[in-house]
Amino acid sequence: MAPNKTKSMPSMKELQEVLAALESEGNITMGNQGEPAPLDELFDDSYFYHILHGNVKRESFEIAPVAKPLSVTAQTNAGDEDDKSKDDTLRELTPTSTLATLKFEVITLPQGCSWGDDPDVYGARVLVRPGFTATLKALNLASSNQTSSSSSPSSPPQLVFMAVGPRDIGRSSLCYYLVHEFFKAGQDVVFSDPIFTSALIDQKYYGCYTPQIDKHETIHRLVTSQPSLKPVWWICDDGWLPIKGTQCHVLVTSLSTQADADWKTIHKKRKLPRAVQFHIPTWSSDEIKAGLIVTLANVSAKVDSSRTETVLTDMSLDPEQESLLNGLYERFQGNPRSTFEWAMLKWGKKPPAKPVKTKKTTTPKRKI
């Protein structure tokens, strides 16, 4: 019997939860139990595949800083009754030509691929916020200091950090950046969300359903073994927390409203060291502008499949779009997701179609 067409299909998350439940009951067997996944066959469109094979490239581009509005007291003539702005404050923009340019970096996958599980959200490019590089340096420094003092009884067995921020601030983007950078530096790295866990261990890929991580021998052994000379990082995103017995370094992303509860769970229930919290800062208007350019580049690559590559340095905002930046920043209170979704809806139009030569047509003669 055909399924009821009015009933909605299950989401990918629901399907994965069902598969995980079946696997736990022994009704199905998920491959790669302790063996590297056949990545070239199954994951050739995954960002982990491209991280593993070194296909991620770094791009850079420059922008002029967003012109900040200046308040100027309106001066009006007393006899000018038609001047609608006589009781308002005039706003004018600082000329951008006198300001230095700002440089931003992007980590880019091959065209047609996407960071994360939702190509409509991320696309092939992720903007590297200035705070991302600072976070990476701080984590590497802390890891280096911990390794050098590991013989001291007072030194913690591992490092636990929490990156805290509101919804849509870019917590997952930070995770993608760190996974790429840790692996590029020769470290083993595990990335988990509540559904799936991926690991890059000794230049090989391993994967399992996150609720069943204790059954995956290779991944479980990596995160629960005593730290070796080579740092191991477990990055937990989107609400997933490390399991009890974890021995490797951990970075957890947490919503601001959930941070206290997550901290208590990590320390009191999972018995891990006290997590050091740091807050992901709000996006600046300049970062929003850079993110808009990256977003429009991702959209351009999707709507024009004939292009082999979208050159980031060719992308820019036109004067009309530039004039709206301050208003958009105030309207969405610096929220990048809301701003970029608005821009994709309003500005992410298909490129103009190429002119097509048409043959001259003649009106058919009427039959008498």
Describe the structure in your own words.
The protein has 368 residues and is of the alpha/beta class. It is 32% helix and 18% strand. It has eleven helices and twelve strands. The protein is globular. It starts with 11 loop residues before the first helix and ends in a 22-residue tail after the last helix. Residues 1-7, 27-42, 71-97 and 350-368 have low confidence and may be disordered.
Quote the average pLDDT: 78
**What gyration radius follows from the Cα positions, in whole Å?**
26 Å
* Number of contiguous helices: 11
Uncertain residue segments: 1-7, 27-42, 71-97, 350-368
Short description:
By secondary structure, the protein is α/β, with parallel strands linked by helices. The protein is 32% helix and 18% strand.
Task: List strands and helices in order, with pairings.
Layout: H1 12-24, H2 39-42, H3 47-52, E1 57-63, E2 69-73, E3 89-93, E4 102-108, E5 125-128, H4 130-148, E6 160-165, H5 171-184, E7 188-192, E8 196-201, E9 204-209, H6 217-224, E10 232-236, E11 249-255, H7 259-269, E12 276-279, H8 285-303, H9 319-323, H10 325-331, H11 336-346
Parallel strand pairs: 6-11, 6-12, 7-10, 10-11
Antiparallel strand pairs: 1-4, 2-3, 4-5, 7-8, 8-9
